[in-house]
Amino acid sequence: MSFAKNIMPETVMERLSILVAAKGRAVFSVVCLRLPCSFVLPSASATLERLDFFGGFAMQHSPGFLKLVQDAKTRIRETNVHEVKKHLDAGEKMIVVDVREESEWARGHLPGAIHLGKGIIERDIEQRIPDRSAPVVLYCGGGFRSALAADNLQKMGYTKVVSMDGGWRGWTAAGYPVEKPGENATE
């Protein structure tokens, strides 16, 4: 993967993900400043490795973690940041849940979101969202942790839970509004 440093265009500020497919082909999912674009893998099982670049820093996910995420994604429903924005703008009733860490939440979150971090969501969800048929949109930094959380909530009986692919990074890259704790947030 030494070539990764040399292929990051200067216009890509938020995220450049390189997905390496089973036969060695690279597939790219890119979120540019305000113009998200992506290429879909032929199948979820084709992903072997993913490197994410955030502001020039690489974060590599372990194979075991990626396998868990891949498995969860076979059972859950996903949406994207643009669909969530469209539904929110239309005034559709949904509960938006940020499953990121407390420090990530403190730096900003989607307007009206509640915070139930990945480490506690299964413990606290029934108290915070007792209606298991309520529409729930989960998001994290990019869509992996929210996929895992969605899988667990479905196992707990939540029937209208979806994971927002692209997560916080996709939302902010699209230029959509954000809140910080204390700014009309539902904490």
Topology:
Blueprint: H1 4-7, E1 15-21, E2 26-31, E3 36-38, E4 47-54, E5 57-60, H2 63-73, E6 77-80, H3 81-89, E7 95-98, H4 102-107, E8 114-115, H5 121-128, E9 136-139, H6 144-155, E10 161-165, H7 167-173
Parallel strand pairs: 6-10, 7-8, 7-9, 9-10
Antiparallel strand pairs: 1-2, 1-4, 2-3, 4-5
Helix pairs in contact: 2-6
Indicate the proportion of strand residues: 25-35%
Summarize the main sheet.
Answer: 5 strands, antiparallel
Spatial strand arrangement across the major sheet: 3-2-1-4-5
Q: What is the number of independent domains? A: 2
Main attributes of the structure:
Oxidized Rhodanese, domain 1, single chain, disordered N terminus, 10 strands, alpha/beta, 7 helices, 187 residues
Describe the protein's architecture and organization.
- With 187 residues, this protein is α/β, with parallel strands linked by helices.
- It is built from seven helices and ten strands.
- The strands form two sheets. A five-stranded antiparallel sheet has the order 3-2-1-4-5. It has a five-stranded parallel sheet with strand order 6-10-9-7-8.
- It folds into two domains: 4-60, no CATH class; 73-173, Oxidized Rhodanese, domain 1, CATH 3.40.250.
- The N and C termini lie far apart (41 Å).
- The protein has helices at 4-7, 63-73, 81-89, 102-107, 121-128, 144-155, 167-173, and strands spanning 15-21, 26-31, 36-38, 47-54, 57-60, 77-80, 95-98, 114-115, 136-139, 161-165.
